[in-house]
Design goal:
- By secondary structure, the protein is α/β, with parallel strands linked by helices.
- It has a single domain, classed as MoaB/Mog-like domain (Molybdenum Cofactor Biosythetic Enzyme, Chain A), CATH 3.40.980.
- The protein has a 6-stranded mixed sheet with strand order 2-1-3-6-5-4, with helices on both faces.
- A hairpin with a 2-residue loop joins strand 5 and strand 6.
- Helix 2 packs parallel to helix 6 and helix 5 packs across helix 6.
Length: about 170
């Protein structure tokens, strides 16, 4: 199943040209390695309204199946990506964020400082990832295998329920 991704880098320094965005391109490579398509990329500052506006535009134009954000998920005062994301979600998908934190905890205790959220707006899945290129790609790898099924369910594909069949129910 071909999936369409949009990648939003949230970083004051990258937005103002003070630091090259490395996480966005690293995620784009990880998406492409799975044979999926990156249809949009953007960089916004650590600003609630800017993050919210970018996410809304991509969701409401139905450009992407999955939006990945990178950055702004920690404890710093300007880390507002989870709040901006949550402000537009219709339904949360906490299992994705829980799985990423659990896997990351095996790598670093700092994973428990992640406030990343994941959720759904319309038929689009939005997932917050860390700002470090290495951590963003590691976290993406944790959830990547379930994304085709998640998108199938969101798109109400007729064969989506097959993935749910319990062995003893056929």
């Amino acid at each position: 199943m071909s999936l369409r991704f949009a990648i939003l880098t949230v970083s004051d320094r990258s937005f103002h040209g003070q630091r090259e965005d490395k996480a966005g391109p690293a995620l784009a490579d990880a998406v492409a390695q799975r044979g999926w398509q990156v249809v949009a990329r953007g960089v916004v500052p650590d600003d609630f309204a800017a993050i919210r506006a970018a996410l809304l535009a991509w969701c409401d134009q139905d450009e992407a199946d999955v939006i990945l954000t990178t950055g702004g998920t920690g404890f710093a005062p300007r880390d507002v990506t989870p709040e901006a994301t949550r402000s537009i979600l219709e339904r949360e998908a906490p299992g994705l964020a829980e799985a990423m934190r659990a896997a990351s905890l095996r790598i670093t205790p700092h994973a428990m400082l992640s406030r990343a959220v994941a959720g759904i707006r319309g038929r689009v899945l939005i997932v917050n990832l860390p700002g470090s290129p290495k951590a963003a790609v590691e976290n993406f790898a944790v959830i990547a295998d379930v994304l085709p099924h998640a998108v199938q369910l969101l798109r109400e594909a007729p064969d989506a329920e097959q993935g749910h069949a319990h062995p003893h129910h056929g």
